[in-house]
Amino acid sequence: MAIIALLLPACNKPAPPAPTFTVAFNTNGAIAILRQQVKPGGTVTKPADPALTGCNFGGWYTNNSLSIPYNFASPVNANITLHAKWLPAIEMVQVPGGSFLMGSDDTEDLDAAPPHKVTLNGFKISKYPITQGQYVSLAGYNPSEFASHDDAGDHPVENLNWYEAVEFCNVLSEREGLTPVYKISARIPAAGFPITAMDVAADWSAGGYRLPTEAEWEYAAKGGNGNGPYHVYSGSDDPLTVAWFNSGAGTYPETHPVGKKKPNGLGIYDMSGNVWEWCWDWFGAYSGAASTNPRGPSSGPGRVMRGGCWSLSDTVIRIAYRNYFDPVLTYGLIGFRVVRL
Length: 341
What we know:
CATH superfamily of the largest domain: paralog of FGE (formylglycine-generating enzyme)
Strand content: 15-25%
Largest sheet: 4 strands, mixed
CATH topology of the largest domain: paralog of FGE (formylglycine-generating enzyme)
Distance between the termini: 99 Å
Order of helices and strands: EEEEEEEEHHEEHHEEEEEE
Structural class: mainly beta
Strand order of the largest sheet: 2-1-4-3
Number of domains: 2
């Protein structure tokens, strides 16, 4: 019996789909989780930064504790979930440009004479001193002496030096896509804390965050209200209504959560008391001459700090009272706030 072989046409089966991995973006409350499909060895396309009211986006991280930032140049060889980091928002208050009488001829105001006319361009200043929560979210560590309170995140950061405040300004600018004001070089150590030295130059036309000049600080503390009359303290002649300081009553004071006393006329809090605040300027005596946008001398015995603090008397928290400190030193009395154009 003959066997007849039938030749059937080959079946064109479709090729199996190339394997892919799923990359999920957990935005932690901003919007629904996003997803991307990535081929093995491919890289993730960085999505547009999500937005969340009251917060600043701080990048994508590979773990729930938000300690390991994701490298978008890394090849993908597994399913992964990326987590959005949110930074506590820094509220800013607009200070209109104008002229005011800087300094004081009152003998209680240390090194504040003679009063002199200063004219400033407008700027924005943070409504509160930078808090521990805000500082830690960018710097990754907390230098504060008062970090053990349950509400420590709302207390002003302190015990950081001038260099660390300057670097925070640049990091904050970069996170918000702004041009940093400071050019930093010769940082010691190259990474990590505490910072013991660095060279700093300022680009005053840049739109990023920076420390206030001494003149900007005093103008904002006085309420930006021209040539006065001014309150003795920022917002009042009664220090108990606007400031945390050593009133000599009850237990020895310490830092307090920001914004718990009354603000000044511009809606700015804690400019008298709570913590001293670093300014840009080297300390120097006033010349008495009128000036526009002064930024202090080119050198001095220390960087200016203003506003007084929780441990000192009502004399030291007066608006015009001046002080300075070595920029490399830290103290549980000194914090800072930021300004920008």
